[in-house]
Amino acid sequence: MDHLLSIFNGISRPFSINKTKNLKNCDGREAVEAMAKDAKKNELILITSGTVNVDRSQNSASVFSKRGQKGLNQDCCIVWEEFGCQEDMMFCGIFDGHGPWGHFVAKRVRESMPSSLLRNWQETLIEASLDPDFDLESDRNAHKFNIWKHSYLKTYAAIDHELEQHRKIDSFNSGTTASTIVRQGELIFIANVGDSRSVLATMSETGNLEPVQLTLDFKPNLPQEAERIIQCKGRVFCLQDEPGVHRLWLPDEESPGLAMSRAFGDYCVKNFGLVSVPEVTQRHITSEDQFVVLATDGVWDVISNEEAVEIVSSTAERAKSAKCLVKFAVNSWKTKRKEIAMDDISAIVLFFHSSSSSLCDQVYPSLSLSSPN
């Protein structure tokens, strides 16, 4: 038991002595709930537009969301600094709901995801430590990835099952994407479902910032996705007035026309190829890696990866970087898609290194971009 409790030394560190004793005597769910409550009290969890920048951490994050022209804003975000009460960890998640209940689904997933993931991570870590062949010190990064991957897969499956059973949220024809990142020290673990996207900005050998797309946009026409859908009797095709927009359809009905192949919810097509299984990857963060942008398709439909990196890099104040990116997306919708109702637009920018200055003068000295009001 002492060996198992030692695993959580870092987790319980920020709590008072009494709280730590209580944590050791309660189950995983209660411990995680206590951590979340404490994080909210100390303003370490952000679920609205704003910034997170803890003095003792190198992490800083800028968040901004703007409602589109289709009704309620179905996008939502979360940033949890000192995730799991560990100073070197942060959780970021962005969710894009769709369908009549999409805003409820997205918020429910945002509410459930961090705590569920943290609890599963703790349990997986304990299970691994009980394996006599487990040696965290040998190939440490590989072990960390396997533990986080297992935790993510378990979490996404559990959340999707809970949504289906939820008494107050109708997810039969509604769902949400989920693009999430956990930073643990110099590693980031990325999990993605749907077509929200995460893009890394890294310095090239020539001294220019370059984008590295960390996630796939899970569209129904991707070969591996289309194959699964067809095997499950679902259909993939474009409508005549939407050339190039591939959608997922039921075998014998012209519905639901879902423009993604993975999502939480949408149980009307869960038996016909739609899944909620995330793609889980990792990356080692170096001094060349500057920040990562997590954004809903309201950004990526009108702004390229290169443009997103350029816009963030050219923003004078980090705290305004997400707002600046969203503002440029709004303007791009007005010029590039003026005949289409603007989608909800949301972004998180997670910076990896503490700095009070912008990269603008170093990377894009000739670029003239006005800051948002």
From TrEMBL:
GO terms for molecular function: metal ion binding; protein serine/threonine phosphatase activity. PROSITE patterns: PPM_2 (PS51746). Its EC number is 3.1.3.16. The keyword Iron does not apply. One of its GO terms (biological process) is response to water deprivation. It catalyses: O-phospho-L-threonyl-[protein] + H2O = L-threonyl-[protein] + phosphate; O-phospho-L-seryl-[protein] + H2O = L-seryl-[protein] + phosphate. It is an enzyme of class 3 (hydrolase). CDD domains: PP2Cc. InterPro entries: PP2C (IPR015655), PPM-type-like_dom_sf (IPR036457), PPM-type_phosphatase-like_dom (IPR001932). Its cofactor is Mg(2+); Mn(2+). Keywords: Hydrolase, Magnesium, Manganese, Metal-binding, Protein phosphatase. Residues 60-352 form the PPM-type phosphatase domain. PANTHER family: PROTEIN PHOSPHATASE (PTHR47992). Belongs to the PP2C family. This is protein-serine/threonine phosphatase. It comes from Abeliophyllum distichum.
